[in-house]
Amino acid sequence: MIPRVLSIAGTDPTGGAGIQADLKSIAATGGYGMAVVTALVAQNTRGVRGVHVPPRGFLAEQLAAVSDDVEIDAVKIGMLADGAAIEAVSHWLRSCRPPVVVLDPVMVATSGDRLLDAGAERALRGLIGQADLVTPNIPELAVLAGSAPATDWGGATTQALDVSRRFGVLVLAKGGHLPGGTVRDALVDAAGRLAGGRTIVEFRGERVDTRNTHGTGCSLSSAVATLRVRHGDWVPAVGSAREWLAESIAAGADLRVGGGNGPVHHFAGLWSRGGLHTRPVPAQLAGRWWHQVADVRRDIESLPFVRGLADGSLDRAAFDWYLAQDACYLRDYSRALASASMLATGPTEQRFWAECARGALAERERLHRAVLGGLGQPPVAPSTARYVDHLLAAAARGDYRVLVAALLPCFWIYQDLGSRLARRGGPDHPYRAWLDAYGDDEFAAQNERAIDLVTTAAATADEPTRDRMWHAFRVSCQHEVAFFTAPLAASRPTG
Ligand SMILES: Nc1ncnc2c1ncn2[C@@H]1O[C@H](COP(=O)(O)OP(=O)(O)O)[C@@H](O)[C@H]1O
Ligand SMILES: Cc1ncc(COP(=O)(O)O)c(N)n1
């Protein structure tokens, strides 16, 4: 489930704070971000130049437009600008109360500029009771507590307990403004509803020596709102939001945005973990591989052996020779399938390949009884030997992914050919049993499963492994051509 998170805040055209930061934070922590603008702020990393506040009615209209249509999982409230905006949001919250409401009581920017009318502080206090969590920094906490700003951590937590008790709200007190090499935040609930009945859960981290702290408060509160929906609890939400923010603050300077207090790098963690490197999805790989063996598939279809099989004109001796080689093939193919089962990491894959190995052995025994009449093992033709050697070599190298890629053509090429040939001729077709065996629904389902397992393994593999898988797959396809060519080739051994 992807949390649908609404930010109600002001703007920052340089993208580091306000709504712009909120949308990035929500996305970076796994949510779908939405935004209602309370104020247009002409600001940059150095300071605020001007604030334009749209009419209150228009704020109400934006809020209704979202909530009339979208189910909102969490709301983060940031800059509200003035008393009229506070009243509009308060009114909206009374009619539409999303399950998670986080209020960042933005009053003054990092640059020292006011973002809330001095006269609106009382109205903002009135809104606190409608939130689940309020996230003040040191100066904002002091305003809410009605005291002077705390000068140490003890003073800050005392004020946070006071605010929590007075407003009946959970408080995340942020200690970024206090000096020291350790930055502390604390989740405070005077009612003692935190894990284990505690009133305070403290979070500590190393202070990053940086000027890139513009928008840290906005970013943290949006991340907490998003992660609260994902985790279902406040303590893990704050813990993971802080971890994410710490690496985003540390990477902020890499962005080289602005000459003042620069932004944090919201996607630093995601990008460094491979977020920018796109991987193909399984269905895409299946399409690509299949397309890239179109030449092989055309070659197979135009072989005299396959055309004779389709129209029934194929020489019976050639067909029996083919079946004898098929029996030889199945003996070692089942060993390679069993190896895939042994190498598989998940139980589903393990069972699937084991069942295929059992099926291959059963088919080999059936061929022996029905066709070879107990004549023993026929001599192995070079084309058969080369194909099974390719499979057994992949098994011996022990890479599950490459092995299953090598095994796949024997499902896919056969199923494709079988399903097309099955539609040919009537019930009296001389090779009806063969056509039916490879054209039936059960084999089609097994083939789908094999394609899915192999392409999923390829999609999650690294690039070099994916290339080796593709190569192993392609080589097996070429062995399929040789296998179908051999029965009518002049050089084939007789008997
Ligand atoms: N230099 C820093 N290094 C690491 N974390 C920081 C730093 N500055 C702020 N933080 C963290 O960023 C978040 C916002 O903190 P703070 O600066 O106190 O609030 P605001 O941005 O609202 O003024 C908090 O989680 C705080 O611990
Ligand atoms: C629109 C807007 N909202 C909030 C802040 C505060 O930013 P910070 O998180 O640095 O306190 C800001 N500068 N602009």
UniProtKB/TrEMBL annotation:
Residue ranges of domain Thiaminase-2/PQQC in the record: 304-486
InterPro entries documented for this protein: Haem_Oase-like_multi-hlx, HMP/HMP-P_kinase_dom, PM/HMP-P_kinase-1, Ribokinase-like, Thiaminase-2/PQQC
BP GO terms, sorted: thiamine biosynthetic process; thiamine diphosphate biosynthetic process
Keyword check for Signal: no
GO cellular component, one term: cytosol
Catalytic reaction equation(s): 4-amino-5-hydroxymethyl-2-methylpyrimidine + ATP = 4-amino-2-methyl-5-(phosphooxymethyl)pyrimidine + ADP + H(+); 4-amino-2-methyl-5-(phosphooxymethyl)pyrimidine + ATP = 4-amino-2-methyl-5-(diphosphooxymethyl)pyrimidine + ADP
Keyword Lipid metabolism annotated: no
Record pathway: Cofactor biosynthesis; thiamine diphosphate biosynthesis; 4-amino-2-methyl-5-diphosphomethylpyrimidine from 5-amino-1-(5-phospho-D-ribosyl)imidazole: step 3/3
Domain (Pyridoxamine kinase/Phosphomethylpyrimidine kinase): residue spans on this chain: 12-265
Keywords assigned by UniProt, alphabetized: ATP-binding, Kinase, Nucleotide-binding, Thiamine biosynthesis, Transferase
GO molecular function: ATP binding; hydroxymethylpyrimidine kinase activity; phosphomethylpyrimidine kinase activity
CDD domains membership: HMPP_kinase, TenA_C-like
Highest taxon of the lineage: Bacteria
Cited function: Catalyzes the phosphorylation of hydroxymethylpyrimidine phosphate (HMP-P) to HMP-PP, and of HMP to HMP-P.
Name of the featured protein: Hydroxymethylpyrimidine kinase
Phylogenetic lineage: Bacteria, Bacillati, Actinomycetota, Actinomycetes, Micromonosporales
